[in-house]
Amino acid sequence: IAQMAAAFIKLEDSPMFQKEVRSLEQNADDLRDRCQKLYKGCRKYTDVLGEACNGDLGFAETLEAFGGGLDDLLGVSIGGPILSKFINALRELATYKEFLRSQ
Q1: Where in the numbering of this chain does the BAR domain appear (predicted)?
Q2: Which residue, 9, 59, 97, 103, has fewest beta-carbon neighbours within 10 Å?
Q3: DSSP category for residue 85
Q4: 14 phi and psi, to 5 degrees?
Q5: What pLDDT was estimated at residue 73?
Q6: Domains held by the chain: number
Q7: CA dist., res. 95 & res. 69, Å (int)
Q8: What average pLDDT score do residues 17-36 get?
Q9: CB contact at 8 A, 95 and 50
Q10: pLDDT (0 to 100) of residue 1
Q11: Alpha helices by DSSP H, 1-103
Q12: Domain-embedded: residue 20
């Protein structure tokens, strides 16, 4: 054992230390790759949230023009009050999506 200790004057020279360093470097590389993928996924998700928000608002406007008004007799006859509730829900969802996107 004394000969072995003499062979490695510095801890950095030992095979076990070198093996541990390589393992830690590999883990760091793997973690960096995962973080980069997560970052790209988050960016893509925020872009899609913006598009989804715009789509919800556009669809809500279209539904409102179709028959969501409460003062339009034809709109009321085709379910305007129910459409109005759905339109409000779409707008609320769009608000939440915009909030998520802005974070």
Answers
A1: 11-100
A2: 103
A3: H
A4: -70, 145
A5: 79
A6: 1
A7: 21
A8: 94
A9: no
A10: 47
A11: 2-7, 15-63, 73-77, 80-102
A12: no
Q: 24 lies in a domain?
A: no
What is the band of 2 on the pLDDT scale with cuts at 50, 70, 90? very low
Does 4 map to a domain? no
CA distance 84 to 72: 12
Residue 68 placed within a domain: yes
The structure tokens listed for 24 are 């830690």
Burial 24-62 (b: 16+ CB within 10 A, else e): eeeeeeeeeeeeeeeeeeeeeeeeebeebbeebbeebee
What size, in residues, is the chain? 103
The CA-to-CA distance between both ends of the chain, in Å, stands at: 59
66: its two tokens: 């179709």
- Report the Cα 78 to chain-centroid distance in Å: 38
Distance CA 98, CA 91 (A): 10
pLDDT tens-digit readout, 45-100: 988 998 999 999 999 999 888 886 667 778 788 878 888 899 999 999 999 999 98
Beta carbons of 81 and 69 less than 8 angstroms apart: no
Whole-prediction pTM value?
A: 0.61
